[in-house]
Amino acid sequence: MLWSAGVFSPACLHEDAGDATKMQETRRRSADSRASKVEGASQGEEVMSEQLIRAGNPFRAPFAAVALASLVCGSGTVSPIAVAAQQRVAVPDFTIDNKSAWLMVGDELLPPPSGPGPVTFDKRYPYVDNARARRTGTQPTYRVADLSNPILQPWVVEEMKKANDWVLAGKVPFRARERCYPAGVPGWVVYTLAEPIYVLQTARQVTMINQGGPEVRRIFLDVPHSANPKPSWYGESVGHYEGGDTLVVDTIAISTKTFVDNYRTPHTERLHVVERYKLIDGGKMMEVMMSVDDPGAFTTPWSAVQRFRRVPHEWSEDICAENNFDFLQYEVAPLPQAAKPDF
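and the corresponding structure tokens:
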């Protein structure tokens, strides 16, 4: 389990600035050791099926109060006000409270205001998600990628054509969320339409949790990247606050077992993603501007946008891998299996 026991108290979400000041001295003394620890932050990757490039409603239970306490209080979570006092900078409040969450507005990477953008659907085979199908009285469809996007290198086009052909043959494509695999980056921001994400902010770390899975990202603040980070599902993410309203996240060392998006776009270990999380619309929305660079997979750097809306939502847990059964017996990638226990 991800959680350990503790006693939950709302006060742990709002430590005072005095406590934050005490933490600052500790933070300065431990900055070098944190930088070295970042490299080993993600461990215990599952074995991933070789079927992913071509192949491709869980039980929900409330989090126990002791479980939430472990993550929130045990990790030293403080309010953005206290974080700002410690860091001497304005810090946007993405955490909000323990009864709110962020829900993505769609599971497509949106085009940037200008310049090269992400892969989208082939216009001959429009993508229709379940919500749109209900609104329009039409049939939902699986994604068929537009392989004419000039950002794609030839080998990427060939791999994605296999995935397209799989769908056009009437088969079910691979999606990380549907088969309980980690999303990767930037796929994290289009992981699931139905499950929200929560953001926990401390002076040293931002933790993002997608309820579906659950999936967890850790962003280490104000430290450099490790010299030789080991590739992992969510890579190595370091970040900092900027301009009083933006969290900038820089991620490298992302495992090639992941895809860039829901069109099954592959990448190499040279993938480098910068995300800029910003509150908009008076704090009712969160916008993510992304820049993506991978000289091994793309002809040029490109950008994309995603948005989340703030929703009232109690903390809850969705165990994907323990409640995802193949009742229809269709050909899909197997659920991830660990070769050995993590602990």
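(Above: one complete record from the training split.) The chain has five helices and twelve strands.
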